From TrEMBL:
Protein keywords: Oxidoreductase
Gene Ontology molecular function, alphabetical: D-amino-acid dehydrogenase activity
InterPro entries referenced in this protein's UniProt entry, alphabetically: FAD-dep_OxRdtase, FAD/NAD-bd_sf
GO biological process: D-alanine catabolic process
Domain (FAD dependent oxidoreductase): residue spans on this chain: 3-404
Protein name per UniProt: FAD dependent oxidoreductase
Organism name: Tepidicaulis marinus
Family, similarity comment: Belongs to the DadA oxidoreductase family.
Cellular component terms (Gene Ontology): cytoplasm; plasma membrane
NCBIfam families: PRK00711.1
Length: 426
């Protein structure tokens, strides 16, 4: 089948590659000059297949309210005169309860474990082709740092809720956390570490390097990438999308995949449907650190940052900013991520050469992506709305999508990732 994928970010490139593996003739369109240059560019690096809980939780509204006056706080909200922002906030608030969170935990974990299986399969196939495929990949697990006894209790409750799915989680005492990752000795000595929830099967890696490398492999399989193309309009007939127009250029296909992030919200409205996600801005900082850097990827619950070692670069990411489509880098907030990293790993030092980045995550209110057929079209498919979980869920999402397009029996239930699920439309 002749297919066009809209978007050359991580989700679009993994979708294109899997579809090419299935024998389809694939073209990818993106407005940027190369693959993975927006949300995929400098994220936290975690392949947290078991770190997939949604952000909406019972304590979030009150915690967020307490942070509103602090410009460097983990959460910031800039009210906009936009119906979509308020609609998303309402849907998010309705998800801030324990039953809703537990429901999505299980769906996301199912997709996360499937995504790990699919990533391992991909890497094995690529290795069999004999060429190098490097993205600063580490298989050292992810350790969630628990600052107090309450956090340890919640971690044990999470393990109990998910025990039947056998995710492979371990609660560690503080001393065992330091034995696993010696870079944590400082916070342990300061009494800031009560324990950790360790996922030994989780991994880390540079999502941008992966996207670039996979795009190159996709080209070798015949995938055509059209960069620097701004999508301006669509041609449709009798419930089918016929072509995408980029100015005067017309790209036709038998079927289309919509893998655009926040930039796709307006285009979806042109096609006559609404995508129920909203931009949530995040920040990251990267510093060179070859000695004393942690080998295990870390999630610091107290400071609300994640940290990954990416081939001698230490990457910390965090913050949630609901501020519309603003992509300006706020130095106060960016430096707050660096400060959190310095507190966690004091040997980072002043990090004069720190590189700051900010990007917009396409976040659904319930914390799960949308993998479905678009309403009103027989041949338009959606693979979008992954929020902070794009790197983690990319390969599973791409394989689920490929099965849906190919009319095959899916390996996991696609229903929880449908566009019209009630949790997204209050």
């Amino acid at each position: 089948m002749q297919l066009v994928v809209l978007g050359a970010g991580l989700i679009g490139v993994t979708s294109a590659y899997r579809l090419a593996e299935e024998g389809h003739d694939v073209t990818v369109i993106d407005r940027r000059e190369g693959p993975g240059l927006e949300t995929s560019f400098a994220n936290g690096g975690q392949l947290g297949f078991r770190e997939v809980s949604p952000w909406a939780a019972p304590d979030v509204p009150w915690t967020a309210l307490k942070m509103l006056r602090d410009p460097a706080a983990p959460f910031r909200w800039k009210p906009k005169a936009e119906l979509e922002q308020w609609r998303w906030l309402l849907a998010f608030l309705l998800r801030c309860n324990s039953p809703a969170r537990a429901e999505r935990e299980r769906h996301n974990l199912s997709l996360g474990l499937f995504s790990q299986k699919e990533l391992e399969g991909l890497l094995a196939r690529l290795a069999g082709e004999g060429e190098s495929f490097s993205f600063d990949h580490k298989r050292k697990g992810i350790l969630r740092l628990l600052p107090d006894a309450k956090a340890v209790k919640h971690a044990r409750e999470e393990m109990a809720r998910l025990a039947d799915m056998e995710p492979g989680l371990e609660v560690l005492e503080a001393g065992a956390c330091v034995a696993l990752e010696p870079a944590l000795a400082s916070i342990h000595q300061r009494g800031e570490l009560a324990g950790g929830l360790y996922a030994p099967g989780d991994q880390s890696g540079d999502a941008h390097l992966f996207t670039r490398a996979l795009a190159k492999r996709a080209e070798a399989k015949g995938v055509r990438f059209l960069y620097g193309r701004e999508i301006t309009s669509f041609e449709e007939s009798a419930g089918r999308l016929k072509a995408v127009r980029c100015g005067a250029e017309k790209i036709e296909a038998e079927a289309f995949v919509f893998s655009l992030g926040v930039g796709g919200l307006k285009l979806a409205r042109k096609l006559g449907f609404r995508l129920p996600f909203y931009p949530v801005k995040g920040y990251s900082v990267s510093v060179e650190m070859e000695e004393g850097a942690p080998e295990v990827s870390l999630t610091d619950e107290g400071r609300r940052i994640v940290v990954s070692n990416l081939g001698g670069r230490l990457r910390a990411a965090g913050k949630a900013e609901i501020a519309g489509f603003d992509t300006a880098l706020d130095r106060t907030r960016a430096r707050a991520v660096l400060q959190g990293l310095q507190e966690l790993i004091p040997s980072v030092g002043e990090a004069a050469e720190a590189e700051f980045w900010t990007g917009l995550r396409p976040m659904t209110a319930d914390g799960s992506p949308i993998i479905d057929k678009a309403p009103g079209y027989e041949n338009l498919y959606l693979n979008t709305g992954h929020g902070t979980l794009g790197w983690t869920l990319a390969m599973g999402s791409a394989s689920l999508l490929a099965d849906l397009i190919g009319g095959k029996a899916t390996q996991i239930d696609p229903t929880p990732f449908a566009l019209k699920r009630p949790s997204l439309f209050p």
